[in-house]
Amino acid sequence: MSRRSISIRELAAAAGVSVGTASRALKHQQGLSAETRDRVLQLAAELGYDTGRLKQQPVRRILVLLHSQHPADSPFYAALLDGARARCAKDGIELQVRSLGPGRPVRRQVLECEPDALLCVGFFEPELIHVISRLGKPLALADLWAPGLAAVNPDNRQGAYLVTQYLLAAGRKRIAFLSGPLAHYSIRLRERGYRQALFDAGRLADPSLEALIAPGLDVATGAALAMRELLALPAPPDAVFAYNDAAALVALQVCRDAGLRVPDDIAIAGFDDIADAAGAGLTTLAVDKAALGRAGIELVLNQAGEGNRLQPVSLIVRATTASTPE
């Protein structure tokens, strides 16, 4: 008499995991440790789970998740979402966007949209990513990184290195970094690239030249305060690399309001090449945001293994850094 095939619920109970985790292990999906996956697979073999039951469901609806602090209509994320939508439209896939905010359980916010797969875009706290990864849905990250998950990012470190190297070569002596929260993966990598370029040039990083936007402040308010602090230093900077274009444009206005000539007295550079950067003549790093969105969808559809795919960025030199100091 053949042994009865156990259910996935029974397998999950035997392994001490949720049904979603057991399903991901059997499908070799991301979001769980190798130890957990191996335990589930071993028990499945020992207990006679019929893996023929597993069917890879087609992805018909992808839910893009953004943190509530990142509006979907911001210049960077709007362009990224356009790329994601275009890639979904190619295969007739419905794309939804949801901003995860406080006050409601994350699981409910996600599952009520009935997605087949998930793409997390931009900053999320590690505990949120942990919850999302345990929902049993194919998952990828864009403009974000977390261990054990597939991700695609601009080459943030190299971009920051290139612009800092350029400013050094142009003769700038005191290059400041105007930073957002370092809990953000992209900002942390940009700071690292800035510091590495200084180190490779034999320059010591001056802590007074690293200005951080205060937590809880929006970019317009926080970047303006941080820039004024830099200008108030006994030896103010002769160049500022801001972590993104929005902060750089605020810094540019503060410098002009203070009567400084840009770029003669101070050079300003940003990162991302948003639409307003060209009109302002802002030197920046170009990120193909639509390509980033398309690549994120590809990771979801291919259920790619863990790892960080880097997309190249390019330095665009414009009027805010074009001339060199005397």
Automatic annotation (TrEMBL):
<dbReference type="InterPro" id="IPR046335">
    <property type="entry name" value="LacI/GalR-like_sensor"/>
</dbReference>
<protein>
    <submittedName>
        <fullName>LacI family DNA-binding transcriptional regulator</fullName>
    </submittedName>
</protein>
<keyword id="KW-0805">Transcription regulation</keyword>
<dbReference type="Pfam" id="PF13377">
    <property type="entry name" value="Peripla_BP_3"/>
</dbReference>
<keyword id="KW-0804">Transcription</keyword>
<dbReference type="GO" id="GO:0003677">
    <property type="term" value="F:DNA binding"/>
</dbReference>
<dbReference type="Pfam" id="PF00356">
    <property type="entry name" value="LacI"/>
</dbReference>
<feature type="domain" description="HTH lacI-type">
    <location>
        <begin position="6"/>
        <end position="60"/>
    </location>
</feature>
<keyword id="KW-0238">DNA-binding</keyword>
<dbReference type="InterPro" id="IPR000843">
    <property type="entry name" value="HTH_LacI"/>
</dbReference>
<dbReference type="InterPro" id="IPR010982">
    <property type="entry name" value="Lambda_DNA-bd_dom_sf"/>
</dbReference>
<dbReference type="InterPro" id="IPR028082">
    <property type="entry name" value="Peripla_BP_I"/>
</dbReference>
